[in-house]
Amino acid sequence: MNTLSSYKILTITHKSTQLKNIGNFVLSGIDNDFALQQKLESIKQSLGLDELLYLSTCNRVLFLFTSSDEIDNLFLKRFESEVYPNLASKISLKESSVRYSGDEAIKHLLEVASSTDSMVIGEREILRQLREAYDRCYKVGATGDSIRLAIRLAIEAAKEVYSTTRIGQKPVSVVSLAIRNLLAKKPSKDARIILIGAGQTNTLVGKFLLKYGFHNFVVFNRSLENAKELASMLDCSAYKLDQISKYKGGFDILVTCTAATEPIITNSIYIDLLQNNDDKKILIDLSVPNNIDHSIQNNFFTTYIEIEGLKELVSENIAFRETEINDVQAIINKRLKLFNKIFKARQVELAMKEVPTQIKAIREHAVSSVFKNEVSSLDDDVQELINRMMSYMEKRCIAIPIKAAKEHLAGVVSTKK
Ligand SMILES: NC(=O)c1ccc[n+]([C@@H]2O[C@H](COP(=O)([O-])OP(=O)(O)OC[C@H]3O[C@@H](n4cnc5c(N)ncnc54)[C@H](OP(=O)(O)O)[C@@H]3O)[C@@H](O)[C@H]2O)c1
What we know:
Blueprint: E1 7-13, H1 19-22, H2 33-47, E2 51-57, E3 60-66, H3 73-83, H4 93-96, E4 98-101, H5 103-113, H6 125-139, H7 145-164, H8 174-184, E5 192-196, H9 200-211, E6 216-221, H10 224-234, E7 237-240, E8 253-256, H11 267-274, E9 281-285, H12 295-299, E10 302-306, H13 311-321, H14 325-353, H15 355-370, H16 372-376, H17 380-414
Parallel strand pairs: 5-6, 5-8, 6-7, 8-9, 9-10
Antiparallel strand pairs: 1-3, 1-4, 2-3
The chain binds NADP nicotinamide-adenine-dinucleotide phosphate.
The site of NADP nicotinamide-adenine-dinucleotide phosphate (NAP) has 26 residues, from helix 6, helix 8 and helix 9.
C-alpha cells in the first residue's frame, strides 16, 4: 500500500539557484506528447519511479514523483546522469536543487500552487501552468492516482488562497513587471515591436502593450496558425519563425518568449533584423532559458530586460503581500492535515477494489484444485447446491470488508468540515 512518504519533489527554483541557471534544467525536445511520454517513461524506468509530473515555469523546474526511494546523494547522482548528462561542469543538480519528501513535498506543492513560493508572490499564472503540466503528464500516462490526489488538493488550496486572502489582490505577473520596466524607459508609442512567440505569455505581453497605446507590431512564431491568432489581436502581420532573418521592417523593441531551449535570436539573425540601423534597441527576453543569445547585449547597443532583472520590482511586491503569508500558511496547514486523512482513506478504497477479485480467485481455486476430486465425485444436484452456497458466501464475504471500509471513509469525510 502507498504511504504519504512516497511523495517526493526535486526542484530547481529562483530560491535554490540563480534564475539564469534554471534554464539548464528545462527538459528539451518534449514539444509533442510522444516525445514527452518517451522522456518521462525513460526517467521513471531508470530511477524506479511509480508516477511522475514535470513542471517548468519561468522561475522553477519541478519534478513531483512517487517512489519508495529516498532522495539521497546516490539518487541525485543517478538522476543527474539520467536526466542531465550534459550539465556544464560548474553546475550540479545537488547544489542547484531542493528536495522534499512526504508531508513536506505536499506542503511545497501547495505553496507553489498558491504562489507563495513564486518570485512574484500572488501571480496566478502558476496555477494554470501547474494544471497544464498535470494534464499533459496525465495524458501521456506518466501520472497515476497519487499525483491526481495531490494536484486536486493543490488546486483546491490555491483557489481558497486566492479567493479568501489578499495575496491575489492587485494582480501582478512577471509580464506586468516587465512592462513596467519597459514603460520606465519611456519608449515611443510608435515604436516598431517584434514579438517572437505567440504563447500565453506573449499574448499577455501583447494585451499590456495595446493597453499602453503601442500599435506597431509584427509577430513571428514557430507555427503560423498561432502567430496569426496573436497578430489578429494586435492588428498586424504574422510570419513563421523560420522567416525571421528575411524580415526587412526593422525594429525598436524586440520581445521574445517561447519555450525553445536553444537561443532563437543569434548574432547573425540579430544583424539581419537590425537592417543597418544602429539606434539603441530594447530587448525583452522572458524565456527560460533565454531566447536571445547572451553575447548580443555585449556586441550591440541595447537595453536588456529579462526576468533576472525584475527582482528589484519584485521586492516591492513582496512587501505588500508578506502580511498575507500567515493566512496562506494557515490554509495550507489545514489542507495538509485533511490530505493525510484523504490519502489514507483512498488507500483503503483502492485496497478494497481487490477484495472481490481475490475472493473469486479463492473460490475458483477451491473448486478447481483443492476440493476438485471430492466435488467431482458428488451427484450433480449436490454439486449445484454447493455452488449456490459458495456464491452466497462469496457475496456475503465481499460485502463485509467493503461495508467496513465505507464506514471508515464516511468517518473521514465527516471530519472534513
Ligand atoms: N507564463 C508565465 O507567467 C511566464 C512568465 C515569464 C516567462 N515565461 C516563460 O515563457 C516561455 C513561454 O511560456 P508560455 O507560457 O508562453 O508557453 P506556451 O503558451 O506554451 O507557448 C509556447 C510558445 O513557445 C513556442 N515554442 C515552443 N517550442 C518552441 C521551439 N522549440 N522553437 C520555437 N518556438 C517554440 C510555441 O510555438 P507554437 O505556437 O508553434 O507551439 C509558443 O509560441 C517559457 O520559457 C516560460 O518559462 C512564462
